[in-house]
Amino acid sequence: MKKQVVALLVFIPTLLITHSSFADDLVGKSRAALQQLVAQNPAAAKCKSKALAVLVFPKVVKAGFVLGAQGGEGILFERGRVIGRYRTVAASYGLQADVQEYGYARFLMNQKAVDWVNNTRGWEIGMGQAW
For the chain, how many structural domains are there in total? Predict the structure, then answer.
């Protein structure tokens, strides 16, 4: 029993440190992706200067062969401070056979948009085929 408790006491801090370093890495990658975007795109730089907050997904992976899925994690920045961590997931179907990786940023231009992102448990941006 003592060995199990000791193992648990060693395992839990290791798990927490790993999670913390992953979160720090995600923040760093998100900041770098946003900096690269605004450096390469004047329209993005203008949007960032006017935005109240920016939701950045530095890496989203999308793969499919008839059925597809995508997913990634991102950070919400408000005035440069980390406000939250978000996940994007989606599924699709249809004629497809591809794997791609990309990043994107959503510029939230007013407090209503920021509040909506913060107060909505699940939300969707996009459109699909309607029958």
Answer: 1
